[in-house]
Structure formats: structure tokens, C-alpha cells
């Protein structure tokens, strides 16, 4: 097993050779004759031959017998959860693109529980060297059927023989968009090393499927022979991809096509991220709305004022609420909270915007008994009018609301009609803000205007200002 | 000169600001209401500061990627809501096991399964503590205001880094969507904590990733420094080699994961105490319900009734001593929660045998608990 590395030709990375064979790591968790050792040897030789800096090589593995490999090797190692190897490796590589990240996955680990990550990592073309230890069985858990178990294989959870068809991992990887894909078996140790070297060099997602024997867990119920016999079977069944191209599908039945099955290059994910970051280096997002570094002292005490703006989704009530909260909190020096409620559809349906303005910290953030109700729909009026505090008032749009007789004052302002006259019904909400400001008397119209102009699309300033002042003037009391 | 800024922000936006200010430079997430604005904010901002944002295929991937990035030495976080939080549980246990710093924001919503995506609840309090298998360590914070969303994300990152532990921030749909005028501090004036890193070079082999005195926090090297560190999800020894048959070592390891938090309880516990000392009735609450409780207490005081509030910022590890002391000699403890009763069980446990009655006030229909409801519950219990 790993001790065999001592017989390797002299690699350029002596530390790798010395530490990889530290006897404290033996015996490994692998059975005698397991192909895991062959694969890891080939990988170490490939890393050495590529002259990679061991400090900058990181291993991530999923769960399975193979997963323990990282513990024995002189590299940083993340032994991820079952199935999550590629997601973990994606995070590591994205955060540390300077590292060469080698991901070890199994057939069950990579294609069953981790199948979603398998296809998406390939699609993203992130620079990972992914090696699948495909022994067609859950060996670690005692020999259950895996997504690559061939039909009729007898296993602990397929005692009558597997019924389901097997995945072809390379075909999945290629169809998911992997650029560099190859298959090899544990018989072909030298060729495996070369394929690993190519994979390590490839500047993008590389996937190498290694077909390996599990003569213990798969072998015990199936007549596949011992380790040597299984491995020699791979020799007999293997056919080079170039030769395979000349043969019919029938002739390829039961053969294992080995070699590089796909080679394409696409833009690599971490490079694209780096490029994006470089491009945005000098950009800062403009903050919507006002921001102030000056703390303003309020000119008067108002206690606590609860404002409820209610109507139909699309009438702009959230913007109206935002303008009140922002003007009060940033320019007025009060404390202010805004709570938005709307139905599942952004347009139509009941929409309410709650604003609480107070001298001191706003504790309970919700409107319980509004001091002010703006009703822009009949439903809004009927739902909330009787909740208004005795000292409060109602403002409504007669186009939508036929008011009942109320104990509190109810002011009618034809907000939508005024907006129509200004040329855009959309600004009825701004007319409402102007009218409310006058009735409320705690926020200055200048503050509201400044706040409003910082929130609306460029080019609509004149219209919005007009609408605000029209609303303000509409109140004559 | 201080560069603090006053602006109108939602709870979700404040979480983004807090993360950036705390030095988070990696965010992986999956869209889910009502947490999506946090992902959106990071997707916009992180590339501008040289950080990395990625939307992954699911929440399983998101949490795994966050751990991977953190292993690379980058402060990393994610955000989600109930269904996604459930999917992250296995990885949260993993983060506790390999002691990898990371922060998870759960913007809680109503109900099991798909529930109601845009309505608030506090129903993941127990899941945040016990949602994953195997006696794992975790810290859980619950902000109550937009300003506190900022502060607590900073604190979450700090605690996570210093103690090498996953920290969960429990916001909710109400707080996430709520906008509040807040003054954000100048990021340069914030005190940021870093994870302990090895003092000696790799060749010295003196720094072990999982070795510390009782209750200690061992150093964690970044990947790529030559320390050849092993982040092993199996129970492992001081170097990260998996262990199955050394029960003494297993016990020592699993105990240390808890002990490091128990020992640091004072540094981890965040709370606000309002009129507790002379109160007859005490409200113990957390999250936005905590601020409503303060409203109720202020109203009660105005009417000559002595009501106090202990608002818990840190929910886990549960601050036993703090609660026990606050509960002393009270005639009633009211525990309002937007769930069917979760933290109330802890309060009953802590006050058991003291004779102080503990009363739960629960609501799980997506609506907030009003101060009036709290005062009525106190009055009803006092009669």
C-alpha cells in the first residue's frame, strides 16, 4: 500500500515522499489488495512530477474508504461530510484561488448523496482536480448498492441483484459541462499518473474516474475473484478511447473505455471572479435614499406617533412610508421605524405601510392604534378606520373610498385626481405625503421633499415636487 | 474623525453591513424568503471589496462552501430561513466538530415545512441549539432592532473567530423587512477579533489544530501555510487524525468543544436588563418581542406597576446564572415568544424550586405580540 512509495523513482519533492510513508499512519483503514493505495500513489507521483509546492496543494475528500487518504498525506486536508466534498472544495478554491485543490469523491458519495454538487461543480468550471474512486459499491458501510453498481450485482441492499441501471460518471460530467474528463482503472497505474498530471495542469474543472476493485464488499456476493483477478479483469476489459471510436456499440459492450474522453476549455470560475473584482475595485454602490453623518436634534417633542398608510399594492404606499420614516429619522432628528406588509403579489392586493415616529427609541415597532390613517382603498378604510386613536385623523381618497360616519376627523383629498391632472396617476402617493405632512404638522415639507427627491428615479424630480406641494396645498384647514 | 452614518436600513440590509464591517469576505447562499436580501446585498458588495459571493445549488452546498472558505482563512458566512436552516444542520454540526469559524443568519419564518415564507416567527430557537446530531457546540444570538442586526453580526463573527465555533444569528421576517433609522458605527472603530493562529512555523510542529488545555481554543492555521492541517469530521485526536477506539481521547475532545464556551460564558453572553432590580413582574424575552416587552414595561411603570424586562441577546449557551439572578424574588415571570413555547422551558429549568411562577405567552400566527397582550397576561396571572 502506501509503503510502496519507497520504491518510486526519486521525485523532486522529498518531503512528500518521506512524510507520506510515515509509519504512524499504517496500517491504513484499507483492506489488503485495495485499489485506494494504487490511486493515491499515482496521485503522489503526479504531484511530485508536476513539481507542485506541497504547501499550496490542498485535499478535500468526501466519505468512503478513500476519504481517509487525506489523513495520511502531507497536505492540508478537509475531510468533508458525506457528499459535500465538491461544495466544500468550491468554497475553498473560490476563497483561495492560489491553492491547487484536489477533491476525492466516491461513486455513492459523488453521484448519489452528492449528485447535485457533482453536476453544478462541472457546470461552473471551477479549477478543481476531481478524482472519483469508483468501486461500484458502498464499501465503508458494508457493501450496499451504489449508483454505479451494474445491473444484477448482488449487494447487501440488493440481495436479489440490482435492478436499477448504473450511472456512467464520465457521461454525467461531460453533459453537465465538465471540460476535462477521463477514465482509467487501477490496473493502469502509470497511465493514471499521466492522466492525473494532465488533470492537475488543466486550468478548469477536471474529472477523472478511476475504476477500482472492492473484492471484499462487492466481491463477497459476486463471483468476481480476488483483488488480482479483479484488477486483471480491468486489463482485459479496457480499451483505449481512440481505438474505441472505431468500434461498434455492440463490440464495446462490457468494455471499459479508458483515456481522455473530453477536452474543452471554458472561462474558469475563480478567474472570472477575480476579473469581476478587479473591474469593481473602484466602484461603490450608491446608497438609495439619504445618509447623513450629522446627528440632528429634533426641534420639538412629539411623543410617539403611529402612521398607517393603507391601500392597494402598486399605489406607492411603501415609498410614502419610507419618505416619512427617512425624513423624520434623518432630517427631523426623531427615531423612526417602517414596517411593510403586502400580499404575495407585488401588485394588487392589500398593501400597508406602518411608520412609527418617536422622540426616543421606538420600542414596540408596530402600529397598534394609528394616530394617522391614510386610506387609498375601500378595504383599507373598512379594515382600519375604527382602529384610529380618538385624538387621530383619517385622510382618504374619495375616488376609492366612500367613508362611513366616523368619530375622528376624516379629510377627503382627491389625491389620484390631482395626480391625473399633473399627468401621472403614479404620483398620487406623493400627493398623499404632501397632504399628510400638512395635517400632521410634525415634519417639515422641505425635509420631506429632500427625502423624496433622493428616492425617486432621475428625471422625475419636477413632477414629484409638484405633486408633493399640490398635496400640501390641498389641505386648507 | 468618526465616519458613522445615519440612514434608513432594513434588518436584512444591516446584516450585510455588519458582515462587511466585521471583515466577512466570503458569502455562499441559496435564495429563500425572507433572507434573500442578505444574499443580494453581499452579491452586490463583496466583489467591490475583493470578496467572493457565490449562489450555490442548495443550502447543503452553501454551508459546506462557507466552511471550505473559512478553512482558507477567510471570514465566511451564509443566510437562510427555516427550510434552508434545516438543510444546513448537518454542516453546522460539522463546523462545531472541526472548530471552523462561520456565521449563519436564520431569518425565521412561520411554520414547519414551507410554512409562510414572509411572516415572522421565533420557532427555530431549539433547532438552533439542538438541530444537529451529537452534542455539538454552538452560539446563538437574537437581535431585536435593525441596529442590533448590525451589532450582532459583528459580534457573531467575532465570537465565531475567537472561539472557533459556528455562531447562529436568529433574525425573523419582521426584523428582516423592518426599516429603521440607525446610526452605523465607523467600521474602523469596531473591535474585531481574529481566530487564534499558530505562533511557531510549521517545521516546529508545536501547534496542534485540536489540542488545548481544558476549555482552551487551539490555534487554527489557514490552508496553504505548510502546516498540513487535518480538518476531520470524524472524532479526531489533537492533530486531526480520526479516532474510534480511544474512549478517553474521545471524551476529552467532545468535552473540550463544550467547555471552551462554558468557560467563556461572560464574554459570549449579551443581554439588556431594564428595571429588573425592583420589578415585581419580570418579562424575559428576546428578538423583536424583547423591544415590545420594554414598551409594555414602560407603560406599566407609567401606571405605577413595577414590571422589568430581561432581554436575552445570547440564547445559547443559555445564561443560567443571569436568568436565575434576575428571577430572584419576582412574583411572576412572563415569557412571551412567537412560537408555541421554546425558551420558556429553559427558564422553568433554571427557576425550578424557587417558587417563582413562570407563565408563557405564545403566538405563532405571524403577528407580533403587542405590549397590551403582555400587560393583560401579567394582570391575568396576578389576579
Describe the structure.
The complex is a heterodimer of chains A (477) and B (383). Chain A is of the alpha/beta class and 477 residues long. Chain A folds into 2 domains: 2-273, Rossmann fold; 304-474, Pyruvate-ferredoxin Oxidoreductase, domain 3. Chain A has helices spanning 14-20, 36-49, 69-72, 85-95, 107-113, 115-124, 169-175, 189-201, 227-237, 241-244, 269-280, 317-331, 378-384, 415-422, 428-440, 445-453, 461-474; strands at 57-61, 76-79, 100-106, 128-134, 137-138, 144-145, 180-185, 206-211, 238-240, 256-263, 291-292, 304-312, 335-342, 350-358, 372-375, 393-396, 410-412. In chain A, α13 (378-384) links the parallel β15 (372-375) and β16. In chain A, α12 crosses α16 (445-453) and α14 packs antiparallel against α17. Chain A is elongated and about 100 Å long. The N and C termini of chain A lie far apart (94 Å). In chain A, 49% of the residues are buried. Chain B is built from 13 helices and 15 strands. In chain B, the strands form 3 sheets. Chain B has a 7-stranded mixed beta sheet, sandwiched between helices. Chain B has helices at residues 11-21, 36-45, 59-71, 82-98, 125-130, 146-163, 173-177, 247-263, 265-268, 288-302, 320-327, 343-351, 371-382; strands at residues 5-10, 26-29, 52-55, 76-80, 102-108, 139-141, 166-172, 179-184, 230-232, 271-274, 281-286, 307-312, 314-316, 332-337, 358-362. In chain B, α3 (59-71) runs parallel beside α4. Chain B has 383 residues and is an alpha/beta fold. Chain B has 2 domains: 5-189, Rossmann fold (3-Layer(aba) Sandwich); 272-382, Rossmann fold, CATH 3.40.50.920. Helices cover 38% and strands 20% of the residues of chain B. In chain B, α10 links the parallel β11 (281-286) and β12 (307-312). At the A-B interface, β2, α4, α6, α11 and β11 of A face β1, α3, α4, β8 and β9 of B.
Amino acid at each position: 500500500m502506501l509503503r510502496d512509495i519507497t520504491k518510486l523513482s526519486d521525485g523532486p519533492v522529498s518531503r512528500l515522499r518521506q512524510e507520506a510513508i510515515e509509519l504512524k499512519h499504517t496500517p491504513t483503514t484499507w483492506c489488503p489488495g485495495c485499489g485506494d493505495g494504487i490511486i493515491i500513489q499515482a496521485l503522489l507521483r503526479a504531484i511530485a512530477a508536476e513539481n507542485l509546492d506541497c504547501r499550496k496543494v490542498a485535499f478535500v475528500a468526501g466519505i468512503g474508504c478513500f476519504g481517509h487518504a487525506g489523513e495520511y498525506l502531507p497536505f492540508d486536508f478537509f475531510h468533508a461530510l458525506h457528499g459535500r466534498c465538491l461544495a466544500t472544495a468550491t468554497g475553498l478554491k473560490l476563497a483561495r484561488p492560489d491553492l491547487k485543490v484536489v477533491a476525492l469523491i466516491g461513486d455513492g458519495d459523488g453521484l448519489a448523496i452528492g449528485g447535485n454538487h457533482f453536476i453544478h461543480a462541472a457546470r461552473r468550471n471551477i479549477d478543481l482536480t476531481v478524482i472519483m474512486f469508483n468501486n461500484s459499491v458502498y464499501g465503508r458501510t458494508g457493501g450496499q448498492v451504489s449508483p454505479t453498481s451494474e445491473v444484477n450485482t448482488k449487494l447487501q441492499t440488493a440481495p436479489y441483484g440490482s435492478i436499477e441501471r448504473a450511472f456512467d460518471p464520465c457521461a454525467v460530467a461531460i453533459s453537465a459541462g465538465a471540460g476535462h474528463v477521463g477514465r482509467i482503472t487501477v490496473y493502469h497505474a502509470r497511465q493514471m499518473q499521466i492522466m492525473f498530471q494532465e488533470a492537475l495542469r488543466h486550468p478548469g474543472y477536471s474529472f477523472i474516474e478511476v475504476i477500482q476493485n472492492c473484492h471484499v464488499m462487492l466481491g463477497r456476493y459476486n463471483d468476481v475473484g480476488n483483488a488480482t483477478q479483479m484488477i486483471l479483469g480491468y486489463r482485459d476489459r479496457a480499451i483505449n478511447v481512440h481505438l474505441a471510436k472505431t468500434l461498434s456499440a455492440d463490440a464495446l459492450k462490457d468494455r471499459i473505455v479508458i483515456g481522455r474522453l473530453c477536452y474543452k476549455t471554458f472561462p474558469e470560475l475563480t478567474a472570472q471572479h477575480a476579473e469581476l473584482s478587479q473591474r469593481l475595485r473602484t466602484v461603490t454602490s450608491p446608497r438609495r435614499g439619504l445618509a447623513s453623518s450629522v446627528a440632528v436634534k429634533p426641534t420639538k417633542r412629539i411623543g410617539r406617533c403611529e402612521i398607517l398608510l393603507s391601500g392597494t399594492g402598486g399605489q406607492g404606499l411603501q415609498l410614502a412610508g419610507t419618505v416619512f420614516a427617512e425624513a423624520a429619522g434623518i432630517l427631523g432628528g426623531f427615531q423612526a421605524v417602517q414596517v411593510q406588509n403586502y400580499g404575495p403579489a407585488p401588485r394588487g392586493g392589500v398593501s400597508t405601510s406602518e411608520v412609527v415616529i418617536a422622540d426616543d427609541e421606538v420600542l414596540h415597532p408596530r402600529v397598534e392604534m394609528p394616530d394617522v390613517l391614510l386610506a387609498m382603498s375601500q378595504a383599507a378604510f373598512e379594515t382600519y378606520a375604527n382602529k384610529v386613536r380618538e385624538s387621530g385623523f383619517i385622510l382618504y381618497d374619495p375616488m376609492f373610498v366612500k367613508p362611513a360616519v366616523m368619530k375622528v376627523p376624516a379629510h377627503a383629498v382627491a389625491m389620484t385626481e390631482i395626480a391625473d391632472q399633473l399627468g401621472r396617476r403614479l404620483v398620487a402617493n406623493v400627493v398623499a405625503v404632501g397632504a399628510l405632512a400638512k395635517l400632521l404638522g410634525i415634519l417639515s415639507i422641505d425635509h420631506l421633499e429632500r427625502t423624496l427627491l433622493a428616492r425617486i428615479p432621475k428625471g422625475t424630480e419636477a413632477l414629484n415636487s409638484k405633486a408633493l406641494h399640490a398635496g400640501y396645498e390641498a389641505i386648507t384647514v | 474623525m468618526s465616519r458613522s452614518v445615519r440612514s434608513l436600513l432594513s434588518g436584512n440590509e444591516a446584516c450585510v453591513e455588519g458582515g462587511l464591517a466585521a471583515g466577512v469576505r466570503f458569502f455562499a447562499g441559496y435564495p429563500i424568503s425572507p433572507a434573500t436580501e442578505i444574499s443580494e446585498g453581499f452579491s452586490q458588495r463583496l466583489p467591490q471589496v475583493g470578496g467572493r459571493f457565490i449562489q450555490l445549488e442548495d443550502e447543503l452546498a452553501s454551508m459546506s462552501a462557507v466552511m471550505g472558505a473559512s478553512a482558507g482563512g477567510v471570514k465566511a458566512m451564509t443566510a437562510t430561513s427555516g427550510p434552508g436552516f434545516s438543510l444546513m444542520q448537518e454542516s453546522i454540526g460539522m463546523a462545531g466538530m472541526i472548530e471552523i469559524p462561520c456565521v449563519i443568519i436564520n431569518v425565521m419564518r412561520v411554520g414547519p415545512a414551507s410554512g409562510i415564507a414572509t411572516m415572522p416567527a421565533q420557532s427555530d430557537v431549539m433547532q438552533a441549539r439542538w438541530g444537529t446530531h451529537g452534542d455539538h457546540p454552538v452560539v446563538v444570538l437574537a437581535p431585536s432592532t435593525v441596529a442590533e442586526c448590525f451589532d450582532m453580526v459583528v459580534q457573531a463573527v467575532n465570537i465565531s473567530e475567537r472561539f472557533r465555533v459556528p455562531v447562529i444569528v436568529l433574525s425573523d421576517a419582521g426584523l428582516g423587512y423592518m426599516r429603521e433609522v440607525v446610526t452605523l458605527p465607523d467600521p474602523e472603530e469596531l473591535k474585531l477579533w481574529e481566530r487564534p493562529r499558530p505562533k511557531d512555523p510549521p517545521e516546529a510542529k508545536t501547534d496542534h489544530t485540536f489540542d488545548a488545555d481544558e476549555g482552551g481554543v487551539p490555534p487554527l492555521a489557514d490552508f496553504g501555510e505548510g502546516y498540513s492541517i487535518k480538518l476531520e469530521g470524524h472524532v479526531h485526536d489533537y492533530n486531526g487524525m480520526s479516532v474510534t477506539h480511544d474512549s478517553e481521547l474521545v471524551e476529552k475532545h467532545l468535552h473540550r468543544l463544550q467547555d471552551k464556551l462554558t468557560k467563556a460564558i461572560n464574554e459570549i453572553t449579551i443581554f439588556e436588563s431594564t428595571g429588573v432590580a425592583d420589578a415585581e413582574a419580570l418579562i424575559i424575552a428576546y428578538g423583536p418581542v424583547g423591544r415590545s416587552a420594554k414598551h409594555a414595561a414602560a407603560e406599566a411603570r407609567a401606571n405605577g406597576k413595577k414590571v422589568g424586562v430581561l432581554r436575552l441577546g445570547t440564547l445559547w449557551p443559555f445564561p443560567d446564572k443571569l436568568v436565575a439572578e434576575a428571577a430572584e424574588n419576582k412574583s411572576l415571570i412572563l415569557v412571551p415568544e412567537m412560537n408555541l413555547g421554546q425558551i420558556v422551558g429553559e427558564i422553568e429549568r433554571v427557576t425550578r424550586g424557587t417558587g417563582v411562577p413562570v407563565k408563557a405567552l405564545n403566538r405563532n400566527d405571524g403577528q407580533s405580540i403587542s405590549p397590551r397582550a403582555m400587560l393583560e397576561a401579567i394582570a391575568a396571572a396576578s389576579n
